[in-house]
Specification:
The protein is mainly beta. It is built from one helix and five strands. About 5% of the residues lie in helices and about 45% in strands. The protein is elongated, with a radius of gyration of 16 Å.
Length: about 90
């Protein structure tokens, strides 16, 4: 194995469009709310959070992923619980 390959072994590049596995849970910040559901953005991936109370906009929440379209990088999930607060006050 070349020195270059040894040096790069185990390296991974991050993507702007991460995929989400159905039935997995993720902790995300909710950036928007349309009155019915919240929206979290993970890079260029969008995760819509169903049944999320509007008061949780701007908070970090745990979401169970219920569907994900990797071609469009869009998914839906169910709100589980609030896990943190945002330091953003705007």
């Amino acid at each position: 194995m070349s020195f270059f390959k040894k040096y790069l072994k185990g390296w991974k590049f991050r993507t702007g469009r991460p995929t989400l596995d159905v039935d997995s849970t993720v902790d995300v910040f909710v950036s928007e709310h349309d009155g019915q559901r919240g929206l979290a953005r993970i890079g260029d991936t969008q995760l819509y959070v169903n049944d999320l109370p509007k008061k949780h906009k701007g908070k970090q929440v745990r979401v169970r992923v219920t569907s994900f379209d990797s071609d469009r990088s869009v998914g839906e999930g169910e709100f589980v619980k609030v896990v943190g607060e945002s330091s953003y006050s705007g």
